[in-house]
Amino acid sequence: MRQYSADLTPPWKKPQPVPEVPADPGLVVEEPGTGFCGAVIRCEAGTVTLEDRFGKHRVFPLEPRGFLLEGRVVTLVRPSSSAPARSGPARTASGSVAVPGARARVARAGRIYVEGRHDAELVEKVWGDDLRIEGVVVEYLGGVDDLPSIVADFAPGPDARLGVLVDHLVPGSKEWHIAEAVTSEHALVVGHPYIDIWEAVKPSSVGIEGWPRVPRGQDWKTGVCRALGWPSENTGAVWQAILARVGSYKDLEPELLGRVEELIDFVTA
What we know:
By secondary structure, the protein is an alpha/beta fold. The chain has helices at 117-134, 147-154, 174-182, 203-206, 220-228, 235-244, 254-268, and strands at residues 20-22, 28-31, 36-44, 47-51, 57-61, 67-69, 72-77, 111-114, 137-140, 162-166, 187-191. The protein has a 4-stranded antiparallel β-sheet with strand order 2-3-4-5, with no helix packed on it. The chain has a 4-stranded parallel β-sheet with strand order 9-8-10-11, with helices on both faces. Strand 4 (47-51) and strand 5 form a beta hairpin. It is elongated. 26% of the residues are buried. It holds the Pfam family DUF3097_C.
């Protein structure tokens, strides 16, 4: 007697085959069930470990049709032992996992404000790739004295959060009182303890033993240049030389790194 298949599923309702992709280190995929997106850092028997742009790790099973690659469903498989070894995922200057070919997102209504042009240039150099992917625009204030009126005009809200990075934000300072006055549910003001953003660059990266102390009442940048024998008549050129020594987050002090990451998280929440 002829045997007939019991599968009566119409062909158009059957799952279509999907490509199998080796889970090579550095491959960026998304786990659709959780929305977790990251780069492969490890693939072991039955599991794959991903790392997102913030350094968070998640382990997922290697299940058929379990991941999205550039929006397409794929099945991750263990890479062959003959595959060339890779040192790990590419990184941006901020230490985040780079996303090759990623397009800049349309700018959000939210913004990050920093005090001055030098601050903005440093943030752009280290976090620029991350900010473009997240659609975050950075602007500079030129000082914090007008911050209350600027925040009032901006009118932060749930869909337009405002983050502000302030120099020399220490308890009791003028900057601290201004920050306290404008902080709200949708406006976050954070800062580093340095008098100027120059100090947030590690001295070793600039080739000095430490940033000199400048007497109170004296222009800080001018005093630093004089103490170090740098041309004090053109602090802008000196800053460009300092900025050229910054290659990544490793050249910056932790007190600045944490605050900028905090602002990016807040504005993109």
